[in-house]
Amino acid sequence: MSIPKEAYQELQAIVGPEWVSDDPAICEADRRGGGQAASTSKRIRPACSIQPETADEVLAIVGLCNQYKLPFAATSSYNSPEPGSGRENVVFIDLKRMRKMEIDEENLYAVVEPGVSFAALQAEVFKKGLLAFVPMSGGNCSVIANTINIGEGALSWKLGDRGYRRLLAAEWVTAEGKLLKIGSRSIFEDFFWGEGPGPDLRGLMSPSDMTSPAAKGVVTKIGVRLFPFVSEKLVPSGDAPTTTILLPENRFKWYNLVFPTRKAAVDAMYEMGKCEIGLLVMTVPPWFFSMARVRAPAPAPTGAAGFWANWNEKGAPRAAERPEQTLVRLLLYGIGSDKRLDYEEKVVLDIAGEFGAEARTSRTQDETHFMSSDAIVSNIAGGRFRSILNFESMEHGLKVADIINKNTSKRTPPVLNDYGTTNWLLPYDMGHTGKEESLRFSDADHEEDLFLLMLDCQKDFLETGAFPATPDPGLYGPKWGNYPEKNKKIKQIMDPNNLAFPLD
Amino acid sequence: MLNVEEYRRQANQCVRCSFCKFIDLNWVQSLRFSRQCPIETRYAFNLYSPHGLLHGALAELDGTLEFTPKLVDALFRCTMCGGCDIRCKRNLDVEVLQVIEAMKIRCVEQGKGPMPGHKTMADNIRKTRNEYGKPHEDRFKWVIEEAKPAGKADIVYFVGCNAAYQQPKLAQATAKLLKQTDTEFMLLEDEWCCGNYLLATGQVDLAREMAEHNVKAIQDSGARVVLTSSAECYKSLKVDFPKLLGRSTEDMPYTPLHITEYIDQLRQDGKLELKKNVPMKVTYHDPCNLGRLSEPWQEWEPKYEPPVIPVGKVWRRGDRGIYDPPRNILKGIPGMELVEMERNRTNAWCAGSCGGTAVAFPDFALWIAGERIEEAKASGAEALVTCSPDAREILSRAAEAKQIKMPIYDITEIILQAM
């Protein structure tokens, strides 16, 4: 793989020789596919890797790629199991040196470049008594990459489903190498408003099954919404690997609610939504508790051994005995005052009584939602996992969970048998929408079983009208209004040479 | 466990999540000090990061990649500070540091490494038993009349090259401390370099020679406890020597003890009181070798049960390092105020002196140290205290280079002031 010598020299001139390399080892670290990640992609290295520091440099790089007809792919590299492109001779644009961030605390938004992680943003806004959304993909993720992609997580209960709900104005180097300013940024030096004045083209950033957001260019700066938060200091606590953030007890309280059936749990979550209580709420699959054992203090078995010891001894028998029993975790949130917390507590206890739940409280600490520090821990159990995701509503989540459970049971072992217990349901927007996420584990030698399980589920989802997060286009295109076809047409208009993030 | 093939299965677990690049996310307190890995922070390419090195290692093992100049450069710039290893073991349990260490060994075996500076260091050690190439017979030249070691004692003071040759006042401070606490101590008849940087730069044969010699010297001395005030030597005594000799720490014929553990225990037992007022606002730098790298080593034969359960493995996740004793001591000194830097304990940013990086890449090491000095300044401290002669040396140089007024002390100097 190589690119023309003149093109390479021009890339060096744009960023400086130190920040571009075609060394095979540099390119291997940025390669797509193969082995390590749960991947079915072709294993391929980019032709070179380049590290711009400014949007002007990105503009120049993309312009050069168009001039030489070189495909390019951008990443911010904070959580990239599948970076790069499946095409040969790709210029790999790594944006992690672009780390500028500004916070407008009066107008409740932050402006970030691609190299800013959610954890860094959250830490900075905490100091100002504000809260940023952090996805369950991990606080290490790039704010831009995740927000323009899916951008969802437990905080979506209160802060809104999907990243575009929090995405404001943006700057964007188009696939043809022009700087596009959208929303308020198109008229002012300001990112405060996404809808306007000026064009609102945020929908073009949204992903589809055929084209990633990056397929239409490189987003170099966005405004994201911030939210009012408690003024009390949040205190980090503990040494790795068992750290947390201590939450002020006058403002937060965890409730664990054990419902006799999953339907009761879902009905109760709808009631919580109607009453608009809580910062987040979710069901918790039984294996979550065994996962907590991976960091048990020695000499107890830890890591994978800890997980399986606990699961085999306690988790699995309990799950087999009571598959319908459903645990809901709810973080009550006294935003504004202590009295609000008292009010929320009274409401949740009423709801628990009405739906026959046993209610218990637990320690007032973050359970990896404000910083999302445990996003990858599921890999410990077996070495490989696949997330089968569906977005729609909680009832819908129950339907697809049945399908997933049915298909899972056909592949256990090697896939972990959770006995058809309630999967991970996360209602968003106070219950208006919801996510069902089934994490399924295997060891590295049986990765294909996970892939086949996902395909089996997708076929069956069609019968229920479910729309998975990563649908097979062959199955779903015609069924779902040819959105991918329309997206392809837009891509052809915006990127006639198919240079930006070509997947084939 | 020094052959990278033995870690292949674990390296294969890496999913490029990038948690290895950041401090524990719950402890992130700012954008400025949110990162963990010095090479990744400075050079940004993914190869210059723990997961990049893992993927480079796997490709090299698969035969699809050679030790290219960049791969060798990235490997040997890595300070082996271990931050990535601890981060990964929150989520994935990959032995990141072991893979990197074993890859350096493999690189040296293939004649592609180490760097010229590392070879010079090894030559010095081979000839003079210290990394500076100074006369071996001068190793104990620092000994002073007022703190003379005994001919025979239960405790051996393992001095280390830096305190013996570069900063003799630190060796003298330790000896004085021991004398003033009525602790009988002896020196090894023939102390050699601990070899910490040899192993960290893949020069495993010479490192093993150092370990074998020193362990034999300790056994011959009859002492049961080996005390040191050097973080690097402490890690060698506790982790590297057993690793190089194919044993576990608990099977070694001695107990390693850091001076801070000893002094803190004396305080807790009521045998030592730090009475003198030392009015100073200080911050404490956790040396990597004393903190997250100093957990006991347990030899382990790779054995797995399905699906991927390592049988009988005790994980080293960093939380059993030496963090509290130095803090207890500093907090117990009248007039002293201890403030923490944002990255502390398991999250500490490397000072740049680890892993032999400073020997081959002095400018990069100084940059790492400069970052730490900036962080110390941001903490509001007026001085920085540490427990590693090497860290003290490079941090002092960085403060000077940055023209930041931040005196750097070894903790033994501070304790002496308070006695």
Structural features, described:
The complex is a heterodimer of chains A (504) and B (419). Chain A has 3 domains: 5-94, Uridine Diphospho-n-acetylenolpyruvylglucosamine Reductase, domain 2 (2-Layer Sandwich), CATH 3.30.43.10; 101-228, 2-Layer Sandwich (Uridine Diphospho-n-acetylenolpyruvylglucosamine Reductase, domain 3); 235-473, Vanillyl-alcohol Oxidase, Chain A, domain 3 (3-Layer(aba) Sandwich), CATH 3.40.462.40. Helix content of chain A is 32%, strand content 20%. Chain A contains 15 helices and 20 strands. In chain A, strands 5-6-10-8-9 form a 5-stranded antiparallel sheet. Chain A has a 4-stranded mixed sheet with strand order 1-2-4-3. Chain A has a 4-stranded antiparallel sheet with strand order 15-16-14-17. The two termini of chain A are 16 Å apart. Chain B has 2 domains: 1-113, Fumarate Reductase Iron-sulfur Protein, Chain B, domain 2 (Orthogonal Bundle); 114-418, no CATH class. Helices cover 44% and strands 8% of the residues of chain B. Chain B contains 18 helices and 10 strands. Chain B has helices spanning 8-11, 38-43, 50-62, 69-77, 83-91, 96-109, 116-128, 161-166, 168-180, 196-200, 204-221, 231-244, 259-268, 324-331, 357-360, 362-378, 389-402, 411-418; strands at residues 155-158, 185-186, 225-228, 255-258, 280-284, 304-305, 309-310, 336-339, 383-386, 408-410. In chain B, helix 3 packs across helix 6 (96-109) and helix 13 (259-268) packs across helix 14. Chain B starts with 7 loop residues before the first helix and ends with a helix.
